[in-house]
Design goal:
This protein is mainly α. The radius of gyration is 29 Å and the shape is elongated.
């Protein structure tokens, strides 16, 4: 009897060994950026804003694809404040003509280039400057943090539009690069504060401490360990701020101290259209709507990026 039990046990063991063990698939770990991209592709807010922004960028880079009209050509004899012809899609007279007889549709298309260029370049400059200042202040601390933080507070205390007005009025010619530098000179403080707060948290992480213990240089720690992990909130703030710079450029041009003729800009057209608000409101309303749509698109994009990068909102 014991021998029979042993044989049965041996047969059962052999049968069990012959059956392959179930395999458990282990999902590949995703980084913060891949996880964020995975969420962004499924966000209607991101899709709508991205489509709008891509359309506006194509319009700014290749205006000839949308109209063959010259935005500076004026014909007072035939086109003075001629009303829009809404049925003539994508034609020169679609949005009517302004007080100088220029095609509003052509100026809307070509005006995107100046407004979007100002916003993108200013955002790039303030992001670089603010990130550098914030990283240095947050990582080194001590007197470096004190000096940089106080300088940031001084600039932060200056009203943005008022400060830009003061800076721009000191220049006789206010071309596009003067406006860009004036806005960048005053717009980096918020990103500097965000970067500093992020670095203060990250520099206490174990991987940063380990890099210091292994003798890694300061530049390597900042560029390889701290910057990639601290940049997410900076990108969120910069994306949202980009729309604000479009509004700032339009506001300054409307006040007559931003871009000026012969530059084709939405802000310039809004400024020239205010004189005919009662007689021909379309001259003012159409470029204003374009500014609003563009600002809304970038704000929507910033909100979508924030939702994807902030773990608390998942």
């Amino acid at each position: 009897m014991p021998e029979t039990l042993k044989e049965n046990t041996a047969d059962a063991s052999a049968a069990t060994a012959a059956v392959p063990a179930p395999t458990v698939e282990v999902g590949k770990a995703r980084s913060l950026w891949s996880d964020a991209w995975h969420d962004l592709r499924r966000s209607p807010l991101f899709v709508v804003s991205a489509v709008l922004i891509i359309f506006l960028l194509v319009m700014a880079i290749f205006p000839g694809l949308f109209t063959g009209a010259d935005p500076r050509y004026a014909d007072l004899a035939h086109h003075y404040l001629q009303k829009p012809k809404w049925g003539n899609f994508f034609q020169e007279d679609w949005f009517g003509y302004d007080i100088q007889g220029r095609s509003i549709y052509a100026r809307v298309i070509y005006g995107a280039r100046a407004s979007i260029t100002v916003a993108i370049v200013v955002t790039a400059l303030v992001t670089i400057l603010g990130t550098v200042v914030g990283m240095l202040a947050g990582y080194f601390g001590g007197w470096i943090d004190t000096i940089l933080s106080r300088v940031t507070d001084i600039f932060f205390g200056v009203p943005f539009i008022l400060g830009a007005m003061v800076v721009l009025t000191s220049f006789e010619e206010r071309h596009i690069w003067v406006v860009i530098l004036a806005l960048a000179f005053l717009g980096w403080t918020q990103i500097a504060r965000v970067a500093r707060g992020s670095v203060l948290t990250i520099k206490q992480a174990d991987y940063v401490m380990a890099a210091k213990a292994l003798g890694a240089s300061t530049s390597r720690i900042l560029l390889r360990h701290i910057l990639p992990n601290a940049i997410a909130p900076v990108i969120v703030v910069a994306t949202i701020a980009l729309g604000g710079y479009i509004s700032a450029e339009a506001s300054l041009s409307f006040l007559g101290i931003g871009l000026a003729e012969p530059t084709v800009s939405w802000g310039v057209d809004i400024s020239s259209g205010q004189e005919q608000l009662r007689n021909a409101p379309f001259v003012l309303i159409i470029p204003s709507v374009m500014v609003s749509i563009t600002v809304l698109a970038f704000i929507m994009l910033g909100d979508a990026v924030r939702n994807a990068l902030d773990p608390k909102l998942r």
